[in-house]
Amino acid sequence: MRKKIMVGCLAAVLLLSGCGRETEKETLQTVEVEYTAPVMEDEKPEEPEVDLHPYDFTLAFAGDINLAENWNTMDYYRQQDNGIYDCIDPTLIQMMQEADLTCLNMEFCLSSVGSPMEGKAYTFRADPYRVQILNELSVDVVNLANNHVYDYGKDAFLDMLSLLKDFSIPYMGAGKDAREAEAPYYIELDGKKIAIVAATRAEKYILTPEATEDSPGVFRCYDRTRLLEVVQEADANADYVIAYIHWGTEYSEVLEEAQTEGARDLVKAGADVVLGAHPHCLQGAEYIDGVPVLYSLGNYWFNEKTLDSILVKLHFYGDDEEQHLDTILVPARQEDHYTRLLIDPEEIQKWNEHLIQMSPGAIQIDEEGRLKSTDMAE
User: pTM of the prediction?
Assistant: First the structure.
């Protein structure tokens, strides 16, 4: 810092005296000099803290759910005293409620209008007030990319879209036109932007219409070209991209080539997580270039069959220097119209072994339920 101080300056002054002698006289002048105050050891300034923008949030994903009035799940529901809490384990519901975002596959049309589509063996439609069940499950966004959302025709489909908007439940994978159907769902959590992309390629006999420039329907991906373009666009606009695809063979644990090849293409396009639905049963998992892939989440609450199920929790955490994703598998089982959390160690072990046996890649599941490839295992 710059300070003003008084300093002494010698100036030669000639003084005429009787003796003719020169004398020196000291004068004072004011000058500015650079001055740095000493810093004591215990007074050294602290190093400034670096803002690393930490983040920590969890997304929960479930598979197929069916609330259709003409289906056996709702026959069972209507007999229960505590509604959905007597249909899905309350602890599972609590996990859904505690997540920062919860998503599931809505395998039915939500409407009170329309007629069953001709040529379909099964058609599913829930009354609009069943949206209350989605609210009880703390569902934040629904996947509509499947083969049952159009079961009651165009009017019912458009009515469903309108109802979901009225109830403030976002959706992806279907829409009033291709632009809406293909659009990723975006959300920002702890300063990180997440995109969820949904599409379907699930019908042996294709009856559900594909959304076009001027007509409603679903986002189809039998040809993956447009899907991969959307994932690439989402990757450019978000920190994390999750692809949730309706694919595979119903009630088969054997993966289709379209699934395994599709997962690799999705990872190359920029997906950070790949999830699947439609087979109505749990399928295998693997890591592709460090990206977790779970090929089918199976039935979350769909019918009376005894089948392994799952709730997947994606735990994202870190800061600007380090980023982490824990894929946590919550083992469950659907049986006799009820989906329960597995808590018995022996049952959990068998569930884990079943998933590992089905998986195309070498995976492990640790004691906390975290999915890992053998390369990641400590």
Answer: 0.86
Compute the chain's Rg from CA coordinates: 33
Give the confidence band of 52 by pLDDT, cuts at 50, 70, 90: confident
Instruction: Please tell me the distance from the alpha carbon of residue 92 to that of residue 294, in angstroms, as a whole number.
Output: 19
For residue 169, report the phi and psi dihedrals to the nearest 5 degrees: -115, 105
| One-letter amino acid of 237 | N
| Arithmetic mean of pLDDT, 90-118 | 98
Q: What is the pLDDT of residues 316-354, one digit of tens each?
A: 999 999 999 999 999 999 999 999 999 999 999 999 999
The per-residue pLDDT for 40 is 52
Tell me the sheet residues that pair with 32. 4
Asked if 147 and 117 count as a contact pair (C-beta separation under 8 A), the reply is no
- According to DSSP, residue 304 is labeled S
Answer for the pair 11, 27: CB distance below 8 angstroms, yes or no: yes
- What token pair was written down for 354? 């079943």
Report the candidate in 224, 216, 176, 170 with the shortest Cα–Cα distance to residue 199: 224
Q: Which of 14-18, 42-46, 97-101, 271-275 has the lowest mean pLDDT?
A: 14-18
Q: Which domains does the chain have, with CATH numbers?
A: 2-38 (no CATH), 56-373 (3.60.21.10)
Closest by Cα among 61, 162, 159 to 106: 61
Q: Alpha helices, DSSP H only, in the chain?
A: 72-77, 90-98, 131-136, 153-166, 178-182, 225-237, 257-269, 345-358
Q: Give the residue carrying structure tokens 């810092």.
A: 1
Alpha-carbon span 195 to 234, nearest angstrom: 6
Whole-angstrom Cα distance, residue 240 to residue 306? 34
CA distance 212 to 309: 34
Torsion sign (Cα): 265, 269, 271, 276: negative
